[in-house]
Amino acid sequence: MNKPNDSLVSEFVLLGLSGSWETKVFLMTIFSLIYLGIILGNLSILFLVIFDLHLHSPMYFLLANLSFIDVGVASTTVPKMITDLLNEYKIISFKGCMTQICFIHIMGGVEMVLLIAMAFDRYTAICKPLHYLNIMNPKICVSFVITGWVIGVIHAMSQFAFIVNLPFCGPNKVDSFYCDFPRIIKLACTEGTKFEFIVAANSGFMSMGTFFLLILSYIFILVTVWNRSSGDLSKAFVTLSAHITVVVLFFTPCMFLYVWPFPRSSVDKYLFIADFAITPVLNPIIYTLRNKDIKVAIKRLSKQGH
């Protein structure tokens, strides 16, 4: 990740979240509590799935991987955002900025594949219950995770390879609390249209394509249940509502920024708080409160503790 010789910029200034001193202290407190919730909630799910044999099933295997990714996604941005709220000068080095971009897009790619895998898991469980264990066997589950990481790396590096060699010779203020391709390309001392197209074609297509694939899969599941149960969708809708909530929260900011890239406003940085903070803290809440198996596992673990 060495920066090119013609690049004079060795660091970027993150403008972060604006507001009065009191507002920043309030936001720092809120985001500190949210980040604590992200770590405790997701690591608890990870811990339960690993150590409780009753949770060694395809759905919980995928959920544990999602929890791991959520911790990673939040940790790339939220801790720095918290510390920067009280700093007058919010600096990130060139290498630090490029590293942050890489991790955001690698883990974003993995999360998209995991959400597709979880949708496929629910489709199989609801529409093909008798064949569920044959279809969602351990080999398939591991393949989903490996595929996610491969796609994540390819997705990130295919854009990073173009961006890292751009000349940065002047402006270095990023109107956000984190680094990302659209904001950084705007600062390059070169015509950025083709690079904007690369990001839109890659991240935009991936976000939009995955979102519509997931929504279509949920519609297909609901239609199948409707036909089988003479119009009673309540049970299936309750099961799928958690997934749909996560999908909408995760993909809305992605599509806003990457499908129509390089916004002229700073709205996107507030939207991305949903991806980096809100969604990772909601995942354990949604899947725990609506899941009997997780509740039973927690009770079982507490009894063992006593």
Automatic annotation (TrEMBL):
Keywords: Cell membrane, Disulfide bond, G-protein coupled receptor, Membrane, Olfaction, Receptor, Sensory transduction, Transducer, Transmembrane, Transmembrane helix. GO terms for cellular component: plasma membrane. Pfam families: 7tm_4. Residues 41-287 form the G-protein coupled receptors family 1 profile domain. The chain crosses the membrane at residues 25-51, 58-78, 98-120, 140-164, 205-225, 237-258, 270-289. InterPro entries: GPCR_Rhodpsn (IPR000276), GPCR_Rhodpsn_7TM (IPR017452), Olfact_rcpt (IPR000725), Olfactory_Receptors (IPR050427). It is found in: Cell membrane; Membrane. PROSITE patterns: G_PROTEIN_RECEP_F1_1, G_PROTEIN_RECEP_F1_2. The keyword Transmembrane helix applies. One of its GO terms (molecular function) is olfactory receptor activity. It is a multi-pass membrane protein. Putative odorant or sperm cell receptor. Belongs to the G-protein coupled receptor 1 family. This is Olfactory receptor.
